[in-house]
Amino acid sequence: MDGEIKKTCLYDRHVALGAQMSPFAGFDMPIQYAGITQEHLAVRNRVGMFDVSHMGEIFISGPDAERYINHIFTNNISGYKPGKILYGMMLYPNGGCVDDLLVYREFEPDHFLLVVNASNIEKDYDWMLKNCTGYDVRIDNQSDAWGQIAVQGPESEKTVLEVLALDCAKPLAFYEYCNAEYNGHRLIVSRSGYTGEDGFELYATLQDTVEIWDRLLKAGVQPCGLGCRDTLRFEAGLPLYGDELSEDITPIEAGLGIFCKLDKAEFIGRESLVAQKELGVEKKLVGIEIFDRAIPRHGYPVELEDGTQIGEVTTGYHSISLDKSICFALVKPQYAALDTELFIRIRKKVFPGKVIKKRFYETKYKK
Amino acid sequence: MSKIIEGLKYSDTHEWVKVEGDIAIIGVTDFAQKEMGEITYVDCPDVDDEVEKGAEFGALESVKAASDLFSPVTGTVVEVNEAVVDDPKLVNDDAFENWIIKVQMSDVSELDALMDASAYKAFIKE
After folding, report:
1. Are A297 and B41 a contacting pair at CB < 8 A?
2. What is the total count of domains within chain A?
3. Over the stretch A59-78, which tens digit does the pLDDT of each residue have?
4. Between 2.40.50.100, 3.40.1280.10, 3.40.1160.10, 3.30.360.10, what CATH number should domain B9-105 receive?
5. Using the 8-state DSSP alphabet, how is residue A196 labeled?
6. From B69, which residue of chain A is nearest by alpha-carbon distance?
7. pLDDT band at A360 (very low <50, low <70, confident <90, very high)
8. What are phi and psi of A14, to 5 degrees?
């Protein structure tokens, strides 16, 4: 990063709406407009929209594209049909995580779109280039050319159909996408999201993104900031790179083993994951509920009754939808079983709690 | 513009103090509550706890973050505002009306180091 803070194509809209802005992943991003609780509930109960134009779009094509992606990606894209989306990670050889990402299989043969975290775009792109030796592929980082709006919530289908007339959206199941045309440009309509609700992620040119945003706003869709994006994804049990995944946290430790196909012949990091499965992990991600309104935050110690530290909180909130203080924490694996009694140190006090399921909120994806 | 009340003392960590004899009534400023957003939890000391000037005595939690509270004076907690503990949003509703703790000061001269309203106004530079 050169120190210069970037702005998304919707920056002026956020400022005009009076959003509270804050730097995130090198971009000046809206944290909240009306308030985190109000925006969170709009997504849970109706529909909300997020500017996620900061996310990275990297296109990979060429005769070896499928084989190459299977080399750098934990999940298995073989046999995945065009129009399907697959979640997984890129790993270092030691199993630590370069990033978690989505892979879109394009309708054109040997073409893929990889959507990566904003904070990791340069690192990911460099990693992809570094590991493409011997593969006949073209790797094209188009992150700056695409805007993205996430329309999320139970009324999101109705919204994209009625406000934007995106008819191809209707038959999509979650983790499927279609291509539409908007002002003569490509518009990717992806049934996906990061909230635990049904929803769509719309990838468009920068100019079209602004126009789509304005139409949605005029139709009364609640603008939502990164504040509630985090509370929503957290309740839905979804990891955030930097908190639940990092170069020091493997997908096995984060409980994301189902996205790592160890039966694939090879991918970078596979041997380390196989070893972790056989020998066990040193830490494991769990959900913890504490019986108080105090809020466990990233970095707070998880302890036994005698004060021995056995782990650390990765994300925590007083859950808006569940009205409970809950967190993700990485703990020693012998304390990861459901209902294990644990304690969280919050400033000077220690609060009792217990291990609960990580998917705190029941997700409502379109099957 | 954040509300600032004349006649109160202010700390550079955005607490206000209202002085009644040797009792300091302590809350957070309107500027601070605006910065924090919706306050969901107040972490307070207990009555009879000692607090020390400049040291953390508790915290306010918004949805997204915890902000430590620092005592502008040294002394003993004589009262905790239970209404605010039960309903933290009161601080958002009126940060000056809804104090957090009352402290019996052990050294009233510590107040001299705090800002008055006009100095605090300049400090937050709105």
Report:
1. no
2. 2
3. 999 999 999 999 999 999 99
4. 2.40.50.100
5. S
6. A347
7. very high
8. -65, -45
